[in-house]
Amino acid sequence: MRVPLRTPAAKALGGGGRKGTMTLILACLTERAVYLLSDRRLVDGADPQRVIDDESNKVVVAEGRVVFGYSGLAMIGRERTAAWLARVIGDGPTRDWAQVSVRINDRATADFQKLSHRPELKRHAFMGVGWFLLRDSPDEFRPGIVVTDNAVDHATGDWLDRPLAGFHTGVQFPFPAKLPGGLLIDSIGIRLSPQEEHAVFRLVRRCVKRRDSTLRSVEQGLIIALRWLSSRHPEIGPNLMSVYIPKAAVERADMTGEVLWLGSRDSDLMLCLTGTAVERVDMTGEVSLLGGPPHDSAYYISCSYISATDSRTFFYPNVVGGGAVFTDLKVEYPRNGPPTSSPEVAIGEKKLGRNDACPCGSGKKYKKCHGA
Hints:
- By secondary structure, this protein is of the alpha+beta class.
- The protein has two domains: 8-248, 4-Layer Sandwich (Glutamine Phosphoribosylpyrophosphate, subunit 1, domain 1), CATH 3.60.20; 258-347, no CATH class.
- The protein has helices spanning 81-90, 97-113, 194-209, 215-232, 247-256; strands spanning 24-30, 33-39, 42-43, 51-53, 60-62, 66-71, 75-76, 79-80, 125-134, 137-149, 168-172, 183-189, 240-246, 260-263, 269-273, 278-282, 301-306, 313-315, 318-321, 324-326, 330-332, 346-347, 350-351.
- The longest helix is centred in the middle third of the chain and has 18 residues, at 215-232.
- The chain is globular, with a radius of gyration of 19 Å.
């Protein structure tokens, strides 16, 4: 069954977001990279105004090709949901994503049946975005979205009042290598208004269409959008995790057998995803592992941690690769180390001033629109 995403011409988030007492996962497909952004907030399912944690990892990068987030339960049994997801993905073959989806479906169905929560609190959805090889185009990676859930009405995109007996997967691909309109945006979690959907789409589309557009500038447009939404919805936390996977990085790794690198320009630690393991590489020292990471950001997976405060901790997503599973990875910096506050808001390589026109196309100054 296909997830009912709207076309980019609708200038809205696909599915309009899925309503429920959830937070928000924002996904974006472009022709050059796929993006997934998540806040790090966990709220009480019975009382969404009560914050349980503002630094919970909700993101899993699988084999350097697909990145997952979730909306719903913070814990599955006694295990944090992101750690549960990483373990399930890594507990079997990961090259065939149809098999991975079946494994997530089966494990989630079995484990959720054991939970004693009220039915309405067991509604849950996993969203994955990435690059896939399909049977009709085995030599070309296509962008795609996978949603595995137990409570989404795939005819409307809304949350059901009660969960279904089991999980099922909705797949939205194949997308053509050249996306109509240049991008597609989808979300799971809280319900957004039509005005919010249009504002987010306009902002990100302007970032994609600019002549000086970069992978980083599109990411920053998505960060602006999610932080703006967090200021309007108390369920969305102020601390964010962003991951984007460039198509060029996946293609080069597949063609040459080279490793995939995951890192950030905001941190000195990178992860090297080989065919058999995940290696930690400290960039402050001499890097000899396979020649070191590429200097061009188009050839490595980028992760960004955006804190609402001047945090000295840099968090990484959970990573599954080569049969290894890394969870709760972080780097603590001393007071004179690099902070992880919000990055400069930029479109292309030019810093966006508060008196400049907002990139969403509203005609207002940035400080009176998305910068408010």
